[in-house]
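Sample entry (254 residues):
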Amino acid sequence: ANFAINTYSISALPNNPTFGSVTGSGDYEHGELVNLSTIPAAGYHFVNWTENSIEISTEAIYIFDAVENRNLVANFELSVPLERLVQNETIGNGEEACFDATGTIIVSSVTVENGGIAHFIAGERITISEGFNGKQGAYVWARISEEYCSQSPSMLSSEEIINAEILPVIESNDKFFKVFPNPTTGNVRLMFNDSVETSTIILDVYTIVGEKIHHSELNGQMHYDFDFSSLPGGIYILKIQKDKVIETEKIIKH
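Predicted structure, serialized as tokens:
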């Protein structure tokens, strides 16, 4: 006698296609091994498998024998918040902190001490307010990326830090220049003291995420004017080198 082999439909879908995806759906013969795998989207993590709203497994890879039709749902949740307000934080010497959001990070009342490292990773926008204080010897790494803190632990290794474009934020009470007005809506004047007349001054301007947007060599000039009016609002960093001395200054553009 001829016997037909039963075939079963195995359906496996994510609870939301933007949260993650699933592989392994299809038709399987009776007793065939089914291997369902989950792939979270950036900023999300797998929670569990449910069937008829009942949890059946918390394994990201769910393996079973096909013996009946099944309709499974892989449930994902947001790992990284959409928005994050970072405030009243102090990163001390030898400490390293990472703050992330899939949308926007707003940084306020944060201090990074000498030897401290702060990472700010957002999917769309990073806003650092006037309350941010980076001390001499502090390092700040701000970038727009979908590789968030929990998803890239190696990103925080010393080797990665050395290779990354990290902008030092330095404050000093006896700088060889003044910048005004600050905050500004457009024009800014960089004024040097008398000691720079025979020096070569190198001026670089960076965005807060470390992109260099201006470079000048100033020879014997007592002041230099530049225009921020065409740039979007935010914080910019002036890096000024006189001989072997490097100082930086935050410029707030409204």
